[in-house]
Amino acid sequence: MSRAAEPSDQSDPHPPSVLLSRLTWSGSDREIGLRTMNDLDMDSLLGGAEDEGPSRRRSRAPSRRQQARGRKRRRRTRRKGAAASLIAVVVIVCILGGGGYLAYNWVRGVMIPKDYTGQGTGEVTIEIAEGASAGEVAQTLEEQGVVASARAFVNAVDAAGKGASLQPGSYVMRKQMSAAAAVVLLDPEHQVLRKVTIPEGNRLSKIFTTLATATGKSVDEFKEAARGDLGLPEYAKGKLEGYAFPATYQFPPNISASQILTRMVDRFNETAAKDDLEAEAGKRGFSPHDIMTIASIVQAESGSQDDMPKVARVIYNRLALKPPMLLQMDSTLMYGLNKYGIAATNAETQSDSKYNTYKFHGLPPGPISNPGDHAIQATLHPAKGDWIYFVTTDPAKGITKFTASEDEFWKLREEFNRNNQ
């Protein structure tokens, strides 16, 4: 066996298959068999799955420089891929982060709405309309700058359990106050109201003056309102006198004259229903309007509540006499003359006013004042007695005396004159 010569140039190496093929043996068949085996083996080692011919087997392995360049290209590709991946991650994070921030703000606006802190500053008057819901009130408060958001107020109302307690009326609030503080100020105890007391027995003209003074409205506004629809009962015949119920009222600042008078009529209607006025009037053979007319006279003529049932009895007794007796009530005459007083002069008793009960029999056309519940009750349930006269002998002390005798009546008149000299 002889060895093949060493390659003279290391820069041009031959593939291992070539080196092996150059080994010679004595005997051609052995040489061929060895060369063939090594070619196949090297093809397997080099990954050749198929025989692509001599050109494939004779191809050169890549040089070290080529291998280095390949490694650099692969490193650059990996760096570019890593950078692209990093950029993609950053973009996704930004998108998710921005969307998350927007989503957070949206959820926060729904679950934790904007709200101020503290008790606020300044003042603003808020009017809650009749039947307004908590949501409608909340919208008004937000528009007026009281609360930061309507949702915050609704949440505060729900938390306090006061959704059903929001009452119509006027309230003095503060700007930029917390929703919880706003709920506290909208309690009915904090309503801005004007208290007005209407005494029993006042005429409508005096009631208008009292209301005008208390509310800042004009008397003419109330006169005009009195001609409108106030919910009067049919038997009132469209006249407010006698049906503006005397009581202490509380009115919000923005209420109208018509609303005020309507509330007073409503109060009368409640009292009439409680007293069963129509049925009780029918039992006595009078209309409800007649009863209110008698009650107004009882209110005007009585020195005290205790005297009212007796005064009512005197009126009924005079109306029942045959022939009927004139009522001869100074209070009715003075009303017809648009005067005030407890003793009419002889000249005044000659008036042609239909309210002059010195001249005309029966009841006057309508009430002469606005009686309270005591006078109405006394008229519906008069005292028992045969009195047909009474004299308030001492007006200063509210002393009234009753009698069925005309002679006694004149004596009582003399007593009155002595006490009023």
UniProtKB/TrEMBL annotation:
Annotated site, Important for catalytic activity, chain positions: E301
Compositional bias segments (type: Basic residues): 56-79
GO cellular component: plasma membrane
Subcellular location: Cell membrane
Superkingdom of this protein's organism: Bacteria
InterPro entries in UniProt: MLTG-like
The EC number(s) this enzyme carries: 4.2.2.29
A GO biological-process term: cell wall organization
Pfam families per UniProt: YceG (PF02618)
Region listing for Disordered, in residue ranges: 1-22, 36-79
Membrane topology label: Single-pass membrane protein
NCBIfam families (alphabetical): endolytic transglycosylase MltG
Family: Belongs to the transglycosylase MltG family.
Physiological role: Functions as a peptidoglycan terminase that cleaves nascent peptidoglycan strands endolytically to terminate their elongation.
Official protein name in the record: Endolytic murein transglycosylase
